[in-house]
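Can anyone check this?
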Amino acid sequence: MLRVTPEDALERVRSALGDLAVEPKLNFGAVDLTCTRENLVEVATKLRDNDELSCRFFSFLSGVDRTGFTVGEGDDAATGELEVLIHLYSPVHVISVTLHVPVPVEDANCPSITSVFSGAIWHERETWEMFGIAFQGHPNLVHLYLPEDFEGTPLRKSFRLPSRMTKPWPGAKDPEEAAAGGGR
């Protein structure tokens, strides 16, 4: 193990990526950087293959809803963007790198990194299902948790939970409640 200082890790990332990354900076000893959707696969590949970095351990990929919206005006009022968040780690140099990839709400798609890190397959499926961010080039983008006919994206701020008054509750707590209509 060739542990490097956080400052050295930041310089190595800057050197390896050049203009591909925007705003690389330190965040509690880890390197945070923003890249565009268009260069995500190239950035992930360079972080993995560069001998000075060797970020070969894929930790996670998820989404973040950074939108603002007006309550009561529905999904049309959403402004701002979504973000794909990816964490990579170098067990060789003890370097943590977090990638931030802005994704516009009106065009919620991002290239898949499954060709770079096969462990991203499940994470991209979950992010697609919960945030509605489609991953172009994903080998099998199908539901993990929700039924096929489910409408909406549960982890977006604009998602509204249906109340018992507008949508019947699927189960009842006791037999009397079931006989009375299922607890509506």
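Reply from J.R.: I decoded it. The chain has one domain: 6-151.
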